Amino acid sequence: MSWLRALRETARSGLTIERRRLEPLIALRGAAGLALVIGVSLAIFGPVVAASSAFGAFQAAIATFQRSWRPRPVLALISGVSLGLSTFIGYVTGSHLPLFLVLLVLWTFLAGLAWAAGPTGGIIAASNVAIMLVTITLPTSVAEAALHGAMIMFGGIVQAVLIVLFPIRRWGAQRDALADALAAEADYARRLRHDPVAHFDPAPLMLARRAAAVTPREARRRPAELHGSRGVAERIRPVLASLADPAMGVPSEGPERDRVRELLAAAGSLLDAAARAIRKGDPVRLPAAAVAALKTPDTGALLTGPPLRAADRLAALLSDVIEAAEGDGTKGERAGAEEAADAIKAGRGGPQPSEHQQRPTLLSLVPVVIRAMRREVHHGSPILRHAVRLSAVAAVGYLLGRALPFGHGYWAPLAAVMVMRPEFSQTYARSAARFVGTVVGVFVATAIVQAAQPGPGLSAAFAVVCALLMYLLMRTGYAVGQACVAAYVVLLLGMAGEAWSQTEFERVLLTLVGGLLAMISYAVYPAWETPRLRGRLGDWLKADGRYAAAVVDQYADPAARRHDDVRRALLATREARVAWQEAVATAQHEPVRHRGLSRGAADAAQHALAQLGRVAMLMEAHLPGGGATPVPGAAPFAEALRRATDRGAKAVRERRVPDWTPVREALERWDGESRADGEAVREDGDGEAVGEDAAEPEPAAAQVADPVLRNSAGFLLEALEDFSRGLTP
Fold it and tell me: Measured between alpha carbons, how far is 216 from 227 in angstroms, rounded to an integer?
């Protein structure tokens, strides 16, 4: 993509306005907290201190809108306290330009590194630095700076208290994440009816997994319906795929396939019902037709072998989902759900213990964040490059703003810090959106001021209205939110006594300067994702290979198997797959030519690795029990697969085509041993008379009688060869 096209595409995405679900009650609560803080500050300390406290309450409310699994009061407190401390320290050093520049560079560098802990931490840290540049201009003495910092903290405390006193959709984010995961499973079940080998995007399950982590205190308060359902949803996915796949024994057409389609449709309906109940906290309302479909007794007559095991397991897992989704319903509601669950539960399957995840508390999170930041301090890290760009642009923008004869020079670094992100497309899109939003907001505020000539009280009221619109519309588009923010800041500074003539044309121009600095910094010191695509692809190949090898290992020695190994490998391959998909999406908007990996090769390799992971998932759905007969040939094949994919990942990074000869040879040896053992068993059987009391010979373990393992090993090799063919020029 050329630079001109990249700029055009990113600008268009930044100015896009989307129709999103609004949250008016949450917006009203944030605006009410802001109004309360401004009113108290105006009555006691006057408009200047009220402006500082309003910035604290405003930013604390914005922090609660970030996508985080931390409690909202905690986010508000973190934002308010950190902004108050930054304001006080910034004012104390502000009279000494070299010292303040050192502080600004250090603060912005740490804010950039905070992205290592996640986007929520990075956004809050960058926003606090940007607002600090404004608030340090309001006090006139150290004592006033302390008062301003305390009132900023007070604004965060007020927002936190309001969230505690007036909770809105408590555990709503966790409910949505779990419901989205179940809904994705339901959609997958319906798609499998028409496409038995359809792929599944694991992103909803990964999001639900992150949402399920809780601190010990949160674990005691979590609603019952948020326990267990995610773990069951994780186990349903491979069962659905195994039931639908023709390779598992169900013909493509016929009564068996019709029965499978009926079971998949019933599973989709029940999963949707559970998702709706969890999302809204309502009782589970089960479709009678779906329950009846799972209760139909002819499943055992139509299905045999792996499909029958999958159908039985599916019924048991669906009953677990229903029971977990019912949660804390009334006694009668719970009885109805339990009755339906018992009706569809198959005798062969049973519930498994749900996985429990712990989230570190705030104090224990500090060393975790420090370690994450330290891991990013190396050459080539996009987070480190973002931190360097951020600190350099903030310092240059501050000096440039002071040198220009406009006054309010902090608008340039403020705009730059607010729009900069580790990714190219987000930085450029936000730069264009912030400039357009600033122009609109400034002129709206101009019209209000010229028409109403408001005093401090009326200016504060207009500012609260702008903040309310910001909270309400911030998810519809960055340009819309910035228009509200621009009007809010201008009206708030007008309440504090700032002359309107000082904040009109100058602010628009300095905002443009800040946006240009942010864009230039990325062009000068970029962190392109395109050159790293091969590395991401190699990581996915390595993770997929280890996942498949871990599953095959379970067949080699079922008595000593450890499901934890398979689970860790599965999570690793999901992370690698999502990292690859995000990298491809980012690279599509970069003005960089592909370096050794064309779009066609990337698509072919992605399809092959998705198939490799899918085959491993089907094998996982039929893992043998602890008392099953070991399969000796599985261990050498798993080891060959593990080593070959590790070497293949290295070859991909070095722009070579992986060779799978060791895997092919291991599979051929396995097949040869299986045939030899099978012939030996038949010869022994022919040479002995079988009496009435004689035991029939057991099939040899090396025969790999289970069709799941027998067929899947060849499918794994086929997927790897498809991967190499996709990369072949």
Answer: 14
